[in-house]
Amino acid sequence: MVFVSTRGDADLVTSAYAINRGLANDGGLFVPTEFPQFTLEEIAAMKKMSYQERAVFVLKQFLTDYTEEELRDCVNKAYTEEKFGKNPVPLVQVGKNTGVLELWHGPTSAFKDMALQLLPHLLLNAKKKTGELHKVVILVATSGDTGKAALEGFADVPGTEIMVFYPSEGVSDIQKRQMTTQVGDNVKVFGIEGNFDDAQRGVKEIFSNKILAKSLADKGFVFSSANSINWGRLVPQIVYYFSAYVEALEAKKIKLGEAINFVVPTGNFGDILAGYYAKLMGLPVNRLLCASNSNNILTDFINTGVYDKRREFFKTVSPSMDILVSSNLERLLYHVSNEDASKVAGYMAKLNSEGIYEVDRAALAKIRSEFFGAWVDEFETKETIGRIYKEHGYVLDTHTAVAWRALEKYRYLPDDPDTYSIVLSTASPFKFADSVLSAIEEREVSADNPFDLLRELKEKTGMAIPSRMAALEDAPVLHKSVVEAKKMELTVIGNLG
Ligand SMILES: *Cc1c(COP(=O)(O)O)cnc(C)c1O
Known about the structure:
Layout lengths: L2 E3 L9 H7 L8 E3 L7 H6 L5 H12 L5 H11 L2 H4 L6 E3 L4 E5 L9 H5 L2 H12 L4 E7 L3 H10 L5 E8 L5 H8 L6 E7 L2 H13 L1 H10 L1 E5 L5 H20 L9 E6 L4 H11 L4 E8 L4 H8 L1 E3 L20 H8 L4 H14 L1 E3 L2 H10 E5 L2 H15 L5 H15 L8 E5 L7 H9 L8 H12 L5 H4 L11 E3 L3 H8 L2
Pyridoxal-5'-phosphate binds next to helix 13.
């Protein structure tokens, strides 16, 4: 299995190379040149496997330059019972025809752990395989959850350093505390004055600065990415789509071969793209529902084929989806444009220079046959959390609520009201306790100490506060710097080593 850039660099690379580098030399993203196929029998056979075994089964299709032994070792180190509990990814039935796939039982209480607990192990192997002698510097732009999950994954991993940039006013109290208290000899965390797109742009600029790369290589450093532009972030996410399907089979909610919907609260388009990849591998998927908050650029795109980032940026109660430039869409564009990299490069150049591009009709038709886009405003998000709690006693976090409401909107349409659908739940409600509590109690809530709200939410719902989150209350704040978005590069240079 080999990988190629979405923008036309003709080099074919191994998965170890793609994972080590993160981004292709021409600024494109690495994509597989083919998709391995699973038969229904092979999918059914996953019923008997543990989550860890399912992961190895899927990973080995793509990471053919890793031995099965290596993959098993990586997976077993990542998805331990200590970190993820007995069942890492439970599928909870909530109401008629709907399952909620809880992806947040990892150490940082967000779905990002599913990939970021595994990525460091894949990367260490990749370094060996590619003969990489440089220290790998992981640069991360985060809208809140990636940062902590990457820090947790890479802290004290030998041969690596990690630097995280988050919008200093754009993350929840708990998210900020999770990052600023991070321990580890190789970690640095910075707030920036700006939003996630500013952070992501800064990181991409640093990646594509060839002169900087050369001078750092001379000093023994090479950059890589823990954002979902890295192939090593995407491939672990394919696993849980198969796992969810198999769990629905086990629960007798569906029959083998029955196509189902997945509903994905979307920001950078990584999670939902993994679902598309699962479908390309033979998973019976009807529609992929792309749910957005008020930053509804993807809904507009799926409906019109026009991607227009020249619009107001909203800070919402689902901050991990407050994104206007969804990096992984580039991969989808590549697949729906018959792998025409020059087309993709053209779209990306237009996005850069004019802030807008429009895909051709054939590509749009393909996208619309696979995806449905819906967006959900702030009021609807909170209303949904309150209503689902009342009706089902189930607590949705703000991001998952956006997905739930998007599914309701899809089901209002006549075409497909009854298909079994799985909502991907991407964060623990405790991470956004203020919004969740105010939605459930239908009143404004505030507290000087955000941990008081965790306790209130626990008392109200009977759910247990994730222990690592509770422990943050007494953890010392170690990272206080806030830098201008323009100064990210200087900050990186000044803090290496
Ligand atoms: C990152 C994140 C998302 C968006 O996922 P993408 O892969 O960026 O589309 C949704 N919800 C939560 C809680 C997240 O942390």
